Amino acid sequence: MRAFFFALSLAYISLGTMMVLYSDQTRAHVRSLLNRFSLRTLAAVPAAFGVILIVGAFSVREVFGLALILGILGLAKGVYLAFGPLAQIERVRDWWLDEAGDIVVRLTGLVAFLLGAAILSWLV
């Protein structure tokens, strides 16, 4: 499970870096990924990560608090994407991909980078 958290921290760091440095290209790539699948189908991804993070929180004690919080949020996001009102979910998706300013995207990337760095520093 430590290897999973190590890989997750590197993924957060790389995704955060891409969002900060290449915000428009990252949004275009995410848009192309989201257009391939339905939102209801994609709900399984955050739900699965949420369950893995919750289970992993109890096996790797160094990241317990952060992993548990991220796991609960991921599970809640998956449930909301699966059963929430589709029109509202699409409005939020369209806002994020089309209308959110570069500052918002870069700030989100900075938060993702810091989360990855925090997980990595607790593991090492």
What does this molecule look like?
By secondary structure, the protein is an all-alpha fold. It is globular, with a radius of gyration of 15 Å. 89% of the residues lie in helices and 0% in strands. The chain has one domain (2-123).
Distance between the termini: 14 Å
Percent helix, as a range, is over 70%
- Helical/strand content category: mainly alpha
The strand count comes to: 0
Largest sheet: none
Task: Note the total helix count.
Answer: 7
Give helix and strand order, one letter per element, not per position. Answer: HHHHHHH
Number of domains: 1
Q: Give the rounded overall mean pLDDT.
A: 93
Strand proportion, as a percent range, falls in under 5%
Give unreliable regions as ranges.
none
Write a short abstract of this structure.
89% of the residues lie in helices and 0% in strands.
Question: Any key phrases for this structure?
Answer:
124 residues; mainly alpha; 7 helices
Record the SSE blueprint.
Layout: H1 2-21, H2 23-36, H3 39-42, H4 44-59, H5 64-83, H6 86-99, H7 102-123
